[in-house]
Amino acid sequence: MLKPELLAPAKNLERLKVAIAYGADAVYLGGQNYGLRARADNFTDSELAQGVAFAHQHDAKIYVTLNAFLHDADFEGLIDYCQFLESLGVDGVIVSDLGVIRVVQRNSNLPIHLSTQASCLNSYSALLWKKMGVKRLIVGRELSIAEAGLIGEQSGIDVEMFAHGAMCMAYSGHCTISNFTAGRDSNRGGCIQSCRLPYHLQSHDDKADDLVSFMSSRDLWGIYQIGEFFNHNICSLKIEGRMKSSFYVALTCKVYRQLIDAYAVGTLDEQLLSQAAAELQSIPNRDYFSGSLETPADKNSVFGQLSGINTGTHCYLGMVMDTTSQEIILRLIEPLAVGDKIEIIPFHGEPIGWQVNQIFSMTGERLESMRKDSIVRLPKPDDSVRSHNITKLNVVRFTHSPGRSILAKNLVRRV
Questions:
Q1: 15-65 pLDDT tens trace
Q2: Quick one: 5-280 is in which CATH superfamily?
Q3: Phi and psi (nearest 5°) for 330?
Q4: Rounded distance, CA 8 to CA 253, Å?
Q5: Sequence-distant (≥ 6) Cβ neighbours of residue 301 within 8 angstroms
Q6: With contact defined as beta carbons under 8 Å apart, do 282 and 395 qualify?
Q7: Looking at the chain, which residues constitute the CATH 2.40.30.10 domain(s)?
Q8: pTM tops 0.70
Q9: Which residues of the chain have pLDDT under 50?
């Protein structure tokens, strides 16, 4: 039985490290050019070198996106870039464009993964891509797990599927709304997610003017299909979200790591699934559904909440920057005050909770509260907390409180 790889997104070097710390087997990311997330931080050449080194030190892989659809002028520098990626030991590149595939093959030995943007939806197409040297198919999101598994079986090529995250209602992501509304080419890295906005629809008699949201899909989750991914030999389960926070990356990686590992040893049960669902509900989402993993998406897949996304049951508070036996040093994403209850999310095991009784500045000044975007020292309140192995990159969260922001940010959360 093939155990699927857990593949996570990384907007920057911090999120790469967070993803791997929380259980990702591989990370996909973009450089400064040639990808579909121009608005992400993306990786400089130096950061790519650091990221690949960190991943390989922790037995993880790095896949780099070259998945934009390029015009002739966009190819400048691509040959050198492919050779640079190969010199770093990048484990694969994600490609949509036939011309880019040709350049990669002629100038490097980088393994090619076919992007979902290429809309591979059948075994005939898969066999053709295989003949062209593609090593893995990231199949279109329109496919069910059973269909994807059949493609892999009939073509003899590895198949990767999206298992979690935001869904695009355009066919395999082929959307040009941003081209017309913002002058940014969606298929060359410029998508501004115009589909997420509310729109006015006017009736034929010009009397009604209804505000509706009709182009935004609900978010995908595949927690209840983990066994099916195994049964159909899907080689990699992909989490969407290169624009998302470290908090999102940490929680989704931890949840899917637990589920994949539990199924592999026969211990996945309803209690664990219920816990997984609660954790995923703790982060902002557009309501979850199973997409086309079992049956084709339909009108019930549309996210119709004009008030915005669900903010989740917890809020991202910050990230542990350092720790001693007596205290943690915490980078705040939101304000913190004495009396707040927080939870640290360890890489393994249950959240570690405590009530904040003391806050100190880095110079030792005792504080009653601290603004966001600050670094503070929090003494561990008792032996029950001190006994835990709290490490760098642990995220922290907190519970909702009157007047507090509830938008997810990073790795510490309020409870």
A1: 999 999 999 999 999 998 876 655 556 899 999 999 999 999 999 999 999
A2: Aldolase class I (3.20.20.70)
A3: -120, 130
A4: 7
A5: 167, 217, 218, 289, 291
A6: no
A7: 313-414
A8: yes
A9: 401-410
